[in-house]
Amino acid sequence: MNIPRSEHPRPDFERENWLCLNGEWDFSFDKPSFDKKITVPFTFETALSGIGDGSFHEKVFYRRRFTLPEDMCGKRVLLHFGAVDYECSVFLNGENVCRHRGGQSSFSCDVTEYVKPENELRVFVRDDPFDLSQTRGKQYWEREPADIFYPRTTGIWQTVWLEAVPDVYIKECRITPLFDERAVSFEYVLNGFTTDTEFCADVSFGGTTAARVKHLVTSRRGAFTVCLDERNLKVWKPFDVLTWSPEDPRLFDVELSLSESGAVTDSVKTYFGMRKVEIKDGEFLLNGRPYYQKLLLDQGYWRESLLTAPSDDAFIKDIELTKAMGFNGVRKHQKAEDPRFLYHADRLGLLVWGETAAAYVYNNDYARDMYSEWQEIVCRDLNHPCIAAWTPLNEGWGVQEIVTDRKQQAHSDALIAITKSVDGTRPVNDSDGWMHTSGDILGVHDYSDTGEKLISHFKDKDTILSFFPGGRRLFADGYSYAGQPVMLTEFGGVKYAPGGGETSWGYQESATAEEFLAKYRELVEAVYSCPDIKGFCYTQLTDVETEQNGLLTYDREPKTDLAKIKEINDEMPSQIK
Hints:
Blueprint: E1 18-20, E2 23-29, E3 36-40, E4 59-67, E5 76-81, E6 84-85, E7 87-92, E8 95-101, E9 107-110, E10 118-126, E11 155-156, E12 160-165, E13 170-178, E14 183-190, E15 197-205, E16 208-216, E17 221-227, E18 252-260, E19 263-272, E20 277-280, E21 283-286, E22 289-290, E23 293-298, H1 312-324, E24 329-332, H2 339-348, E25 351-355, H3 364-381, E26 387-391, E27 393-394, H4 406-422, E28 431-432, E29 442-445, H5 451-458, H6 461-465, E30 486-492, E31 494-495, E32 508-509, H7 513-528, E33 533-539, H8 562-569
Parallel strand pairs: 23-24, 23-33, 24-25, 25-26, 27-28, 29-30, 30-33, 31-32
Antiparallel strand pairs: 1-12, 2-3, 2-4, 4-10, 5-9, 5-12, 6-11, 7-8, 7-10, 13-14, 14-17, 15-16, 15-18, 18-19, 20-21, 21-22
Helix pairs in contact: 1-2, 3-4, 5-7, 7-8
């Protein structure tokens, strides 16, 4: 049987003994009658699910029967879900094994005491399409997509899988490159240990051993730092030969293992990139040097499968097309992307700004859920070298009164603090676009339709700080500019509909491919002429539903010569290179 999305869902934390549970499941709306079939991990709203029903259903039910593989018998068994939107309860052989809220983050549960040779897995999902305090991103609460809003995603939308582990296993490991020290830090969590449990980390680069450390475990949590061995790494000097960047995405391979009495009992494959991101003196630095970010806004939607990529190759294609146009990164917009995308961005070389879905109404339930899910997302993804910044909020969505409301301001600052308490190695762009509090980046959105207007808004720092993008203030009450780098994090949005698009829209319009390219050049050259802009994010990679403002169509077909887009992007003045 052809199993969709059957590749390992977490190549940044991969064991050999696992079982993909994607494919055909029993399914039903509203009650557990299971009178339909659905192809997981595609949701019922999508064509690839085999259902393609765009109507509203607040409750959906899944059932999957499976046989436990022989090589999993006698081991601990973990059940993993990449993402389920929005709230779910999971039952294995009639027992409620876990619950989870939040449609963007992953979750797992130990099902060892419930699993049998023959099993029945059921998942009950609730998703209120009309609750605007629920984090939903671009999912619309109306029947048809319109304006900037797209079809809904209900239920399982990322891979489901089983994993076999020993009684004592590695639960997680944070890997932090210490760029200036030419070293790497490991912080691990185990589910337990014995008196002779040893933890080992084997680090290699290009097949050559860079470091190997083994020590006796004395606690479920441990940490150590490894200096990379320059005697083995003959390419050590210059150090740049070992660093990660979009131009040279070099990765170190890592094998983490546990052993008892000299025998390996658990083994996990992972990797890291030796790179450092920081904000200093109003600049974004990559590996200690100013780095001009040329990003694309990437909604991460596909016509036939919406939020779920139709295949792993679809991720690769998007990254390759982005780089072919001369961009060095993307701002993933209003979704926490599948870790497979981050893996390909790591190995192919693409910066990613990590984001998540917003709500549209603020209340205590939203704040509680947002804190929890955002922390889960950051903890899951922080090992990926491609992630250059975190963006928990966008344009005040969900915090519409943040300019004057002290509670909503505190929410923004709390998200910044939560992010930094988990990951202090990356900048946090608090509320991208406007109405900032105490974030590290001043991200500004400006959909001006001419280069002249862009220049009039960004020609110098004083002009920028007096600008009201979209009529909104750059900072909430009580907050002011504190030297953050200024980035134009949304602009452009030029519509060009080569096949006709009477019902579609963009922020401005071009009638021909030549006009489209000329307008792109005009806008980018205007941005490059403003020395206080330290990076940009163009809207957007692809058309999506009613939006036809992508550089590519919804089906990833170029609208113009990609080499000419790259030529424009590469024409940066020397003073900002």
